[in-house]
Amino acid sequence: MLPMIRVSGLHKSFVMHAQGDLALPVLANVALSVHPGECLALVGPSGAGKSTLLRSLYGNYRPQSGSIQVRHREDWVELVAAEPRVVLDVRRHTMGFVSQFLRVIPRVGAVDVVAEPMVRLGASLEEARRKAEFLLGLLGIPERLWQLPPATFSGGEQQRVNIARSLIADYPILLLDEPTASLDQANRDGVIDLIRQRRDSGTAIVGIFHDTAVRDAIATRTHNVALPSASPGATA
Amino acid sequence: MSGPLLSARNVTKRFGSRVACRGVSFDLWPGEVLGVVGESGSGKTTLLNCLAGRMTPDDGSVTYETASAGVVDVHRLSEARRRLLARTEWGFVNQDAREGLRMGVSAGANIGERLMAIGARHYGNIRQTASDWLERVEIEADRLDDRPATYSGGMRQRLQIARNLVSEPRLVFMDEPTGGLDVSVQARLLDLLRGLVDRFHLSAVLVTHDLGVARLLTHRLMVMQGGEVVEEGLTDQVLDDPQHAYTQMLVASILPV
Q1: What is the rounded radius of gyration, in angstroms, for the C-alpha atoms of chain B?
Q2: CATH topology of domain A39-60+84-224
Q3: Tens digit of each residue's pLDDT (9 = 90 or more) over A176-228
Q4: A61 vs B220: CB contact, 8 Å cut-off?
């Protein structure tokens, strides 16, 4: 079976111009691949570059060199140095991302925040809203909140809105950055179940799970992430 | 897939010995919203005016793929054809709504004028469409016969947007569309613009100095400093992983709320 993601020779450093062009190498020579139905957990101490790697996979951070290829519409697409419209098309059809925080849109109700990715894929607003309400219900968001903008929701509620938004479109690839970080036990179990269902139906998943119980419940493999051993220092 | 809608190549404009913008090149694809960000005096508005044919660049070219007549060089068109293009296939939203509206005629006439420019003749239909658009931009239909001079700043800006979008343009140029408005009025306008961009699959070039506005409305960004593009990319790439010293400074200067 072909992988959904294959990464090789990936390098990423941050250059801080305000600090005398201080260069911080974070990823060096990263290689990995993820198959359908697999969940790869990125593990390593905090600050080791797990989020940087995950954001690079989403095309959010820009690596200096190397290759990130994803299976998109039956073809391999290279994401390193890809044109914006290529990355956007991959995000629209192939790859979802659950971040720890919801980026709130002024005045848009929770149900429409969740429905949006499905509408963008061509579904009718009614159909998308039905599925959005189903997911919000499944994730335990009280019905009285569905029409309200999530700006005033609690952290856990916002995170579940975020998860619903990323699950509504059935992406073949899901990237998860601490999807259960601010959830209580019952809601955490619900989210774990939903993600496992996606994994078992063939979604390729890469995630960061601080909670080892969550990781054990979802991940099928781990990938160690560590900072490059060369000591970071200022460069010209 | 067809080609880009708008292509700029090496667009350069000087005022006397001062360079306002230099060597700007990009392709805008259908459905894309391109943001141009930078501080005052970075050349954003000059670039926008050159793209929209309102100013003639000293060097470089701007080409546009028309709906039916193939690709045209914006600056080689006759003045009459360029005006026709501006009234039919394009929209231009000014920062100051008073410059984009006719202040002496009613709101309905401001919207209807664009419809008549594309051939609408039936008065009843024009009035109905104008009224529908007022509602779409959240202005009560009973303000249809009032002149924009009696509108608040936020209402005027929404009217200007209705006037521009009523003819269903393929490409919209926007110069600081939320500049000078109260924050709550801004949020409403942003939400409205965002909905309209999605719903009508608009392609747009949006000039703003507000990175929050750029985050919400644009797909791609070009960062300008001293008349030149110093960085470009997907909007979230540029804002979350800025590479150029100037972009890093801009992003670091945002006040957290």
Answers
A1: 18
A2: Rossmann fold (3.40.50)
A3: 999 998 899 989 999 999 999 999 999 999 999 999 999 999 999 999 999 98
A4: no
Plot region of A173 (φ>0 → left; ψ -120 to 50 → alpha; else → beta) = beta
Residues 20-39 of B with CB under 8 A from A: 29, 32
Burial label, B40 (beta-carbon count in 10 A; 0-12, 13-18, 19+): exposed
Q: Between chains, do B32 and A108 touch, taking CB under 8 Å as contact?
A: no
pLDDT tens for each residue of A94-150: 999 998 878 777 788 999 999 999 998 999 999 999 999 999 999 999 999 999 999
pTM: 0.92
Which residue in chain B has the smallest CA separation from A56?
Answer: B237
Among A214, A230, A116, A213, which Cα is nearest to A167's?
A116
Name the closest residue on chain A to residue B34, using Cα atoms.
Answer: A84
Q: What is the ipTM of this complex?
A: 0.91
Among A16, A60, A107, the residue with its CB nearest the CB of B240 is A60
Task: List chain B domain ranges.
Answer: 1-89+169-257, 98-168
What phi, psi does A229 have (nearest 5°)?
-70, -30
- What are the domain boundaries of chain A? 39-60+84-224
The whole-angstrom separation of Cα A209 and Cα A39 is: 11
The yes or no reply on domain B1-89+169-257 and CATH 3.30.750.24 is no
Residue A64 DSSP one-character state: S
